[in-house]
């Protein structure tokens, strides 16, 4: 509201139309006339290695009304700012290490910050995006885009299992270990962590909420492994939430040293239907010879699932 009052936006967002195009790539098109005419003229980018130029517009020149918040580590000067030429509602910018005046190239620190912001959001509509210099980035100063989008893009259907195999972390390659924890599995988990930390393997510990008494040992093991880990070593920990929302099963040391990702069930029927429908790609929905009937059956199934999930909240009724 303060930014609007001081007229730091170049226009008031007024999207005329948005839709996903038919075809292989499902491009999203948007009719946003004001952005075409009123946005800041893009910087002339001629190379992916183009250095930062302090004479051109950059984010150190933002006025205070354009800055939304500092991410609480002033030594790195990570801030979130408005996008004066938005393409979606709540469109803002993540500016990692702003005062270092880095060019528009992904850094490890900026990627971590972007993933953390995405993970902390409770909305399934938030998007975190990066456009490189030769992908029409208009400012050669390191930034990420944050906005909300109700459409699903093709990239979001990426097969994570296939990606893991392309990175050569597989069960067959003996460098990906999955340990389902229960009573008696703790020593196996400790041996697997030690092996993986030395050899650069990936470890997935599932159901750690079932071995609550062992978690302080896991915390110490993680602290030991953090001193000189292999570059490729990764530890994934999966747990159900605590029944008591005021009490945490996972020790603070584990939480603080981890990137936290939550997957909470939708709280309403409509959100539950959306989540269920997201399991079906457009290609799947159009693959049936009787497309209309198939889509109707899928929707009915998702609706039925949402009703049952909502009904479960109230327990058995006599």
What is the gist of this entry?
The chain is an alpha+beta fold. Helices cover 30% and strands 14% of the residues. This is Dynein axonemal heavy chain 9-like isoform X2.
Structure write-up:
- By secondary structure, the chain is α+β, with helices and mostly antiparallel strands.
- Helix content is 30%, strand content 14%.
- It has 10 helices and 10 strands.
- The chain has helices spanning 2-5, 33-38, 108-120, 160-166, 186-199, 215-225, 252-256, 269-277, 282-285, 291-311; strands at 17-20, 28-31, 67-70, 79-82, 92-95, 126-129, 144-148, 176-180, 202-206, 234-237.
- Strands 3-4-5-7-6 form a 5-stranded antiparallel sheet, with helices on one face.
- Strand 1 (17-20) and strand 2 form a beta hairpin.
- Helix 8 crosses helix 10.
- It starts with a helix and ends in a 7-residue tail after the last helix.
- 12% of the residues are buried.
- The mean pLDDT is 81.
- Residues 162-262 form the Dynein heavy chain region D6 P-loop domain.
- Pfam families: Dynein_heavy (PF03028), GDPGP1_N (PF26217).
